[in-house]
Write a structure and sequence with these properties.
- By secondary structure, this protein is an alpha/beta fold.
- It has 7 helices and 11 strands.
- The protein has a 6-stranded parallel sheet with strand order 8-7-6-10-9-11, with helices on both faces. A 5-stranded mixed sheet has the order 1-3-4-5-2.
- A hairpin with a 6-residue loop joins strand 4 and strand 5.
Length: 267
């Protein structure tokens, strides 16, 4: 059974001088720990503000914050690819669904994308509120699924701003319902990494999914022009809802990368 995971915002455990010290959880995380009935003698997984991993034993939890000591320090996390999901803004709770389940899969960053055909239109105040909500959803999902780090969730971006963020990716996969059925995701990904001699565990891959109305031709052209390793890909003959595509596409990417990593290890 996996350990409960917690992420510290401003505490670096390596700097703690005492053997036993309070774990400075946020108020919400402390409440969550109590809901989980974390008790003395139990272990929790902690990723601190320096992004270092510790397994800690709870010594006491009678006060507001748990008192812990380090049981295991600095476990080296295996190398894993960095997946960025560029998701067209969707209405209702669809974005929550995408962020939650994609985080569980292992997506490391989200870029909500304001598109021409997006039903949702956010002013600055609403965009800030939604961003905080998506970050909270990502944190909850990361804690539940035991991710080694919290995903980054950027404020909503326009296509031009998103393109600037994608310029350094090893591969940009633009999922479009009008892509040729021969534009296979695995072919595009394998080719991009092969020509750059990038092993799968080190790959930085951006996956772009449109909103309810899909990408416009101009948006597709802009995304393809932002990176020389950007390619159109199909997710199959079915037309998927945006919240379905936002989960299926990164799942396929992670599956292909895992297969490539196994093949590379055997080579």
């Amino acid at each position: 059974m996996s350990l409960p995971h917690f992420y510290l915002e401003d505490q670096v455990i390596a700097s703690e001088e005492k053997r036993e010290f309070p774990l400075r959880l946020s108020a919400a995380d402390a409440r969550h720990a109590r809901v989980l009935r974390v008790a003395p003698g139990e272990h929790v997984a902690v990723v601190d503000a320096a992004q270092d991993y510790f397994e800690c034993e709870v010594v006491d939890f009678s006060d507001a914050l748990p008192l812990v000591r380090v049981a295991q320090r600095g476990r080296e996390a295996p190398a894993r690819p960095a997946i960025v999901l560029v998701q067209g803004l969707a209405k209702g709770d669809k974005m929550d669904t995408v962020v939650r389940h994609a985080t569980e899969l292992g997506v490391g960053a989200f870029v909500p994308l304001a598109c021409e055909r997006s039903v949702v239109r956010l002013d600055a105040k609403k965009a800030a509120a939604r961003t905080e909500r998506w970050r909270a959803v990502a944190k909850s999902a990361a804690m539940q699924s035991g991710q080694p780090a919290l995903p980054e969730v950027s404020p909503p971006q326009g296509v031009r701003e998103a393109c600037a963020l994608l310029s350094g990716a090893h591969a940009v996969l633009v999922c479009w319902e009008e892509a040729p059925q021969t534009a296979f995701l695995d072919d595009a990904l394998e080719h991009a990494l092969a020509v750059q001699h990038v092993p799968a565990p080190d790959a930085r891959v951006a996956v772009c999914v449109g909103p309810e109305g899909g990408f416009s031709r101009a948006e597709v052209d802009a995304l393809l022009a932002c990176n020389r390793h950007a390619r159109l890909v199909t997710l199959g003959p079915s037309i998927l809802r945006t919240e379905t595509a936002g989960i299926v596409a990164p799942a396929l990417v992670l599956h292909v990368l895992a297969r490539m990593a196994r093949e590379g290890a055997r080579a």
